[in-house]
Design a protein that fits this description.
heterodimer, A: mainly alpha, B: Beta-Lactamase, eight-stranded mixed beta sheet, 29% strand
């Protein structure tokens, strides 16, 4: 009886782990896509709205859902906090570091977004737009790669989890 | 302390040095000059000093603290509110006004488009001019500018060299006229509608359209607007009784002043110059003056002992400082 319950637990946890991995593969391109859209919104705010960075980031953050939301709102919060004198670069990069673990995105996207922080707010509109477009472009490549991976690994992960659970049960039974 | 909130715009390395200075000096600082890799300079009470690495004043340049590239970048980030791209117009003109009405002059490398300055890059020199509200500087001047017959003020030109208190004075005049404090026993009329065309955000120090300084309850400020265009807009839209503008000198400014005159609006303007003769040498102002458009002139001069001022009438005759305005009606035309 105990053995049976144990076997079920192993299979269930194996399956859940498989599903979790699959979800990570499915969420990654979605989040990259959402990030691209957010950057495009930032472009509009800068190009047409002349919106100060803190306001722009806050506004965009409000329209997003977590986990991306907290990257933007956290960066905006640091910029508007008068006691902490941080630059735009520092607050952006800090927010990315802090919130990244909650996303399904990987190191390559992180590098792009982190790099983007170096020029944030420090040049004229044309230059800002160029850097935003560059980041968008790079992210689009990552998105394509992520979609590719999703197609390849998502289903596999799901069945692999169940099968791995079953394998362990068979081996120790 | 409220009067030194401007210190917080500096990167922490410079903030630390400034905070070590004695309070009386900190309260009197007029300019802080930050130049990358060159000693940090302070100007107060007409003198200049460097600030050493230990936070004491020195006159020896090589003892001074030298702001690094990082300091410069951080300062620029703070004063542009982390958004340099919102300051394109300011970068073209070469200065930024920050919260509190402080003005920061910039120098670096100019980027040209079609032969005109498009913006500045590699900004390495900052001149932070601390704006201070000095209520009361206009008290002794306003009685000389009164027009008793029309219960208003004269068309006035205020002349002074840079850094001698022109802007501080017209800010205070705006407040006095707006509240109706004429500082004269016979002047009993109420406050006037005052329009301020504040091209460089210095007079009212507006942040998001709201004045940082007290410019009076009946004062409208057109912030960041080119003077000539601003004056015309004010005339058309805000029906001011008195209009104040800083640093006139271009032909279109004169045009707008004439327009205001014909609309029955009194104008108080300022111009750079040490003496009336200096101003007369500038063609545009010369024309306005020889047409006797201004009814009074005030010439300011600040020395170590304080501020001196002289008054002239429409024909540029020196008025004796006492008694004149007290006669009542003596200042007409």
């Amino acid at each position: 009886m105990v053995k049976l319950i144990g076997a079920v637990l192993v299979i269930v946890s194996g399956t859940l782990f498989g599903f979790y991995q699959a979800a990570q593969f499915a969420n990654r391109p979605k989040q990259i896509r959402a990030f691209i859209l957010a950057l495009q919104r930032l472009e509009t705010e800068i190009l047409y709205g002349f919106t100060p960075l803190a306001d722009a980031l806050g506004k965009i953050g409000q329209q997003l859902t977590d986990p991306l939301k907290s990257i933007f709102t956290e960066a905006a919060r640091r910029l508007t906090d008068h006691r902490s004198s941080v630059t735009a670069q520092e607050s952006w990069q800090f927010a990315v570091e802090e919130q990244w673990k909650h996303t399904a995105m990987k190191q390559s996207e992180k590098n792009i977004i982190y790099q983007f922080g170096f020029t944030l707010g420090t040049s004229d509109r044309n230059d800002q737009i160029k850097h935003i477009r560059l980041a968008i472009n790079q992210l689009q490549h990552e998105e394509a790669a992520a979609q590719n991976e999703q197609g390849r690994y998502e289903k596999m992960c799901r069945s692999l989890g169940l099968l791995a659970g079953a394998l362990i049960v068979i081996l120790i039974y | 302390m409220k009067s030194t909130t401007w210190v917080s715009i500096f990167p922490s390395s410079i903030q630390e040095l400034l905070s070590k200075l004695p309070e009386p000096i900190l309260d009197r600082i007029e300019e802080v000059r930050v130049r990358q890799e060159r000693p940090l300079e302070l100007n107060y009470a007409g003198q200049f000093h460097y600030v050493s690495r230990r936070g004491v004043l020195t006159d020896v340049p090589h003892e001074g603290y030298r702001p690094t590239r990082e300091d410069g970048n951080r300062l620029l980030d703070f004063i542009t509110n982390h958004s340099l791209y919102t300051m394109e117009e300011e970068l073209r003109k070469g200065y930024i006004t920050i919260q509190g009405g402080h003005r920061i002059g910039l120098a670096g490398r100019a980027v040209l488009t079609k032969g005109h300055v498009d913006h500045l890059r590699d900004i390495t020199s900052f001149n932070i001019r601390i704006a201070r509200e000095m209520q009361g500087v206009g008290d002794s001047i306003i009685p000389y500018l009164l027009d008793f017959r029309h219960q208003t003020v004269n068309h006035t030109l205020i002349v002074s060299p840079p850094q001698h208190g022109k802007t501080t004075l017209i800010r205070d005049l705006a407040r006095l006229m707006s509240t109706g404090q004429w500082r004269h026993p016979e002047a009993k009329w109420k406050g006037l509608k005052v329009g301020v065309v504040d091209e460089r955000s210095e007079i009212a120090g507006c942040m998001k359209g709201v004045p940082s300084f007290d410019v009076g309850p009946r004062t409208d400020v057109l912030d960041g607007c080119p003077k000539a265009e601003g004056m015309m807009m004010m005339i058309r839209s805000m029906s001011p009784d008195v209009m104040l503008v800083d640093e006139i000198g271009r032909p279109e400014d004169a045009e707008a002043i004439r327009e205001a005159l014909h609309a029955g609006i009194r104008v108080i303007a300022t111009a750079h110059g040490g003496e009336l003769e200096d101003v007369l040498r500038r063609p545009v102002l010369n024309k306005l003056m020889s047409d006797e458009l201004f009814q009074s002139y005030v010439v300011l001069r600040r020395s170590g002992r304080g501020m001196s001022r002289r008054f002239y009438d429409a024909r540029r005759r020196l008025l004796h400082p006492d008694g004149l305005a007290m006669k009542g009606g003596g200042m007409d035309g």
